[in-house]
Amino acid sequence: MSEGRRPRPVRPRPPRPTRRGGGSGNGASRGRRPRPDPLTTPGPAAPPSPAASPDPMASAGPAAGARSQVLEVRFKGLRSDFFAFGGAPPLTEREYVVVEADRGQDIGWVRRAAAARDLACEGGCDSVGDRAVPPPSRRVIRRAAPADVLRLRQLRDQELEVRRRTRELAMKHRLRMKVSEAEWQWDRNKLTVYFTAEKRVDFRALVRDMARSFRTRIDLRQIGVRDEARRLGGLGRCRRELCCRSWLTSIEPVTLQLAKDQGLSLNPSQISGACGRLMNCLRYEHAVYAQARKRFPPVGRTIRTARGRENVKSWDLFEETVSLEAGDGDVRTIPLAQLRDERRVARRAELDRR
Question: How far apart (Å, rounded) are the C-alpha atoms in residues 149 and 95?
């Protein structure tokens, strides 16, 4: 040590922490904090009780003393959906209501109303047992005021101009499509336009122009000609309102075989409806024809009658008559009941000769 230089003080080292439980010190790490004692260390704060915190959905629940309802609400073009309502007094049929819609609100009228507790699946919706039907996810917000209904009618009047403007834009983009219907959502947050086309249409540029023109969200939907006739309505060949518009809930496929089974003419102009496709009555009347055909002899069969052996030429379901052709070409038309009696007498006579 050189003269004039002070000695450096020596500081004592702190004791090295030891590992709990004993064992080799190779696995011990320096600076490890001791484990807290669960009996002395306070735990995390308990969450507040449900009664202390306000429920954000409490305002949306049913009012005191109100009965929960399940409603079928009808919109434009026979479009309908189910909603839940828990206000008071209960809603009735033909009443306008404001409901939850896609990113907004819409207005429709109540087509059917039922108490939620009265709806149940007999035998069980899943074959487990009687259980209540779950309520719809969307709900009715409130009754519609007269000003709300007036605004809805004003929007319906504006839809004619929407169709005209959309047709002009479609011609501008040279799109082969037929714009059939337009529908504003009540809050004007969405505009739905229905069209028909023979092939798929690339309408992305058209949607951009429509969004700039109408300043709202555009929904273009391609539908079939049957759905178009269902939305627009009209009169059929029977001079009555179209079945798909008045009472049919779903449109099923119709084939030409149904017309053959019913003995109708295969001329497309005589068995086609307003949409240009085969009439829906060919489908839902087929079961009646199939059941009635069992009472008539097949066309082309040779049967034994009071005049001998005759060939069944045709029969009329509504008149309950059968046309028979004898071997010499003589054709006669008799009621179905008379034909049954003649066949019964002929059968007895044949048994007597044996």
Answer: 11
Q: What is the DSSP string of 316-351?
A: ETTTTEEEEE-TTS-EEEEEHHHHHHHHHHHHHHHH
Whether pTM exceeds 0.85: no
> Distance between the two ends of the chain, CA-based, in angstroms?
153
Contact 28, 19 (CB under 8 A): yes
Smallest CA-to-CA distance from 228 within 269, 249, 197 is with 197
Residue of 311, 347, 346 whose CA lies nearest to 327: 311
DSSP 69: E
Q: Any residues with CB less than 8 A from the CB of 88 and at least 6 apart, and which? A: 62, 63, 65, 66, 67
CATH of 150-223, one of 3.30.300, 3.30.750, 1.10.3470, 1.10.357: 3.30.300
CATH topology of domain 296-353: SH3 type barrels. (2.30.30)
Give start-end residues of each CATH 3.30.300 domain in the chain.
150-223
For residues 311 and 345, give the distance between their C-alpha atoms in angstroms, rounded to a whole number: 17
Report how far Cα 24 is from the mean position of its chain's Cα atoms: 72
Q: How far apart are CA 177 and CA 200, in angstroms?
A: 9
Convert the pLDDT of each residue in 300-342 to its tens digit.
899 999 888 999 998 888 889 999 999 888 999 999 999 999 9
